[in-house]
From TrEMBL:
GO terms for biological process: translation. GO terms for cellular component: glutamyl-tRNA(Gln) amidotransferase complex. This is Glutamyl-tRNA(Gln) amidotransferase subunit A. It comes from Methanobacterium paludis (strain DSM 25820 / JCM 18151 / SWAN1). Heterotrimer of A, B and C subunits. The active site is at residues 74, 149, 173.
Length: 462
């Protein structure tokens, strides 16, 4: 059942919020011990909230856009009275004392936050294998990684443990696991959604966004969390469209992509595995059948993207972790974190030295400006750019990879973060049962256009 249909059914009392949360709790109890998508679940509070929502519906009172829907939240986003540990031993006992802006908005719209999801430690990873609390399994491809760093949020939705979830995306951490788990994941334009209450990985890249099984769920969550936040300096004061209305209009159309020009970047295909390219080329054919014009583009800066992203990431992550000194929050991070987090701290510390910052960090900032300029130039001539989300299939859990092999998962996703543009991943097919995602990127604040393409493609797949 689509999220929009379930939402209407709850509001019409065809199914109750209580039945919905009980179904989720049953699935969590049955499957979470093997999948490890949730690190913490609060059953009693969720049931109590569902009963209150049902009572209000029964009495004819107005309820919110998320009324009775079950939500999972990544463990680096503050939710009052839940453990906000960022999947690290460093913060394993830290209890959230306030709600992040996105969480406040979810609660105001009667979403039921059932628990906190697993992730790579401090969001430093692409596989959810670096979590202090153990790896997360991929429900769509058992034995393989779910992707990261928001692997728990993607896996929870893929396994039907919750209707929607939210994660954070610094260099692909929503889109990567969405692709691997066969669900939809959306990274908004930088500043379109408040980051207040998010534990920073790299503040000039980080964005919060949703996961869902379908476009109506992504639209519903974006309608709730998008918009200006006066308490957060990076948010944009923009006219937020109705994402739900846009999806509804798209789904009514017989030729939803008619008149749209979509770009395919040849270098994005050249760096991807042939089996993934075959799926993407099949997706392009379907889009042509729906009325889209497909044009080939070239992006010569692709080799610049990963080193630029990681140099900036290291420096900003080092800066963000200085508050974890063991005085106010948990344990001292250098004494309690895992190998990948420590690597990034050491690299950030090294690059931040006065005599080296000009050689590395400042040049990386210049490279980012070039990448942003070139991406915006490409997007000027098309409605969106489409292509693979991730260039290779998820590896088997426990496979030993060198850091650069792990970072290679991010080569196609870091571009949107470097450019500050919106991007999403939607299911495109599978290779031997392993999901493959189609990435869609658009101009800044053209978030709704991406969602329209996702909804159109979803219709074509039904």
């Amino acid at each position: 059942m689509k999220v929009s249909d379930k939402s209407e059914s709850i509001k019409n009392h065809e199914i109750t919020a209580l039945e919905n949360i009980q179904n989720s709790l049953y699935k969590i109890e049955k499957d979470n011990s093997s999948i490890n998508a949730f690190l913490e679940v609060k059953e009693g509070e969720a049931i109590e909230l569902a009963e209150k929502i049902d009572s209000r519906i029964k009495n004819g009172e107005k309820v919110g856009k998320l009324a009775g829907l079950v939500i999972g939240v990544k463990s680096n986003i503050n939710v009052e009275d839940f453990h906000i540990n960022a999947a690290s031993h460093t913060l394993e006992n830290y209890l959230g004392s306030y709600d992040a802006t996105v969480v406040k908005r979810i609660k105001e719209e009667d979403g039921i936050i059932v628990g906190m999801t697993n992730m790579d430690e401090f969001a430093a990873g692409s596989s959810t294998e670096t979590s202090y609390f153990g790896h997360t399994e991929n429900p769509a491809a058992p034995g393989r990684i779910p992707g990261g760093s928001s692997g728990g949020s993607a896996a929870a939705v893929a396994a039907g443990m919750c209707d929607l979830s939210i994660g954070s995306d610094t260099g692909g951490s929503i889109r990567n696991p969405a692709s691997h788990c066969g669900v939809m994941g959306f990274k908004p334009t930088y500043g379109a959604v408040s980051r207040q209450g998010l534990l920073d990985l790299s503040m000039s890249f980080d964005q919060i966004g949703p996961f869902s099984q379908d476009a109506s769920g992504i639209a519903t969550m974006l309608d709730v969390i998008a918009g200006y936040d006066p308490t957060e300096c990076t948010t944009i004061d923009w006219k937020v469209p109705s994402f739900v209305d846009a999806v509804g209009e798209t789904q009514k159309s017989q030729t939803p992509l008619k008149g749209m020009k979509l770009g395919i970047v040849k270098q994005f295909l050249e760096v991807s595995d042939d089996k993934i390219v075959n799926i993407i080329e099949g997706s392009l054919d379907k889009m042509r059948d729906m009325g889209a014009e497909i044009v080939e583009l070239s992006f010569d800066q692709i080799d610049l993207c990963l080193p630029t992203y990681y140099l900036i990431n290291y420096v900003e992550f080092f800066s963000a972790t200085r508050k974890y000194d063991g005085r106010k929050y948990g344990y001292r991070i250098e004494e309690s974190c895992g190998e990948e987090v420590l690597r990034r701290i050491h690299m950030g510390s090294y690059i931040s030295q006065k005599e080296l910052s000009g050689k590395y960090y400042k040049k990386a900032l210049q490279a980012r400006s070039l990448i942003r300029k070139e991406m915006n130039k490409l997007l000027d001539g098309v409605d969106a750019i489409v292509g693979p989300t991730v260039p290779k299939l998820p590896h088997k859990i426990g496979t030993s990879l060198e850091p650069m092999e792990m970072y290679a998962y991010d080569v196609l996703t870091v571009i949107a973060n470097l450019a500050g543009i919106p991007a999403a991943s939607t299911p495109a097919g599978n290779v031997g049962g392993v999901p493959v995602g189609l990435q869609i990127q658009a101009k800044p604040l053209d978030d709704v256009k991406i969602l329209e393409i996702m909804a159109a493609f979803e219709q074509g797949e039904l």
